Input
Amino acid sequence: MALKQGLYQKQLQKLSPQQIQLMKMLQLPTIELEKRIKEELEENPALDEGVEQQKDDFEDNAEDQQNDDFDIDISSYISDDETPSYKLRSNNYSNETDEKSIPLSGGSTFRETLKSQIDLRIKDENQLLIANQIIGNLDESGYLRREIFNIVDDLAFSQNIHASEEEVEYILTMIQSLEPSGVGARDLKECLLIQLRKKQTTFTIKTAEVIIEKYFDAFTKKHYKKIIDKLDIQTEDFKEAIDEIIKLNPKPGNSLIDTSKVVQHVIPDFIITDNNGELNLELNSRNEPQLKISNQYVEMLRGYEKSKKTKKDKEAILFVKQKIDAAAWFVDAIKQRRQTLLTTMQAIMNYQENFFISGDETDLKPMILKDIANIIKMDISTISRVANSKHVSTPFGTFLLKYFFSESLTTQSGEEVSTREVKSILQEIINQENKSKPLTDEKLMNMLKDKGYNIARRTIAKYREQLNIPVARLRKQLL
Output
């Protein structure tokens, strides 16, 4: 078949720059929106802070009703033959460009803290390089996951240092003596033993050390009776040893990592208040500046109308026009975002009115994205973007917007209830169980069936995992 070349017409759906900008705006929570506005104010000189002036303020007389600041006609200045139309449109964002974020500085990192300690203990240059190599191989929890012989090879290839495994082991023991206690361990067992051996030796500490060293597997599986029989000790002594073990930190590196992280406070995007049973909704925009088109740029564009047009003037007109258009699009996107957020949240508030009045999780109705989309006549993807990373402040606390969305479950009476209600009841049953004899998933299933919730055992296991509740064997405690 011969190849042919020709012209064809076809219709395509393509998002405009304004639509792309609006979609990105909808996804941003309040704190990120504030950063985005600041970035736009810095990048676009035609965008200014302040209350937008009325149209009449820019009109020279009452007859000139068509002269809008945001849409000044410059077609008479520039011939279509000289300037292609695409140069008159502003598209600040490509499809692959994500929103920029402002970098924030934190404190000393986990590894920097360890290096500052080891620098005071080791003076030999080669030993210090070995120590830094080991510290560099520690994971975020403070564990050394790389084998000693691999570190020896790394030192030979990258640092040209020929060290024996015994020398690396010796440096590792020095790192294990650093703070926080337990850092540099190769597994959980070694981590706990390092911490116990740093404590003052007592009968309880010695018992805890023996439990971890000799009966670690039985301890992790909570086979307490077996350990008590093997050690031939009293139950009270065993409980005291277990209490000491529980106090230990299984991830010592996290204590240093958390101190170097920037604390991100949750700023709610919506605020719901209860005024004697009447719910009031407002958008949290107190830190969001008012935006308008810069008067200086509008007057600048008008000034070119009265002057003679040179080639440089045409370039200046293009620049000013692009900046004004971009500013107008941004202001319009902010307004549309505000309206869409309020409309969506109003629908959610009305749908879950009983919960916002009582604060009882069992009052939550089954609700999916499609339910809200049908109410406000918007696309499901728009509702998803609004619900993404947004928080709402209520009289009963601050919640993620996604918290209010849940699937439905039919009870034995035929009533549809939210899966959150079932999880709440499941959590309550487990909280009240006998900790020495925890309830199995099958027993939990039977108890929920007695309450009218027809639910399978595998579903119980799924909900339990979603609630971060371990299996019955791992919930067992000594009373």
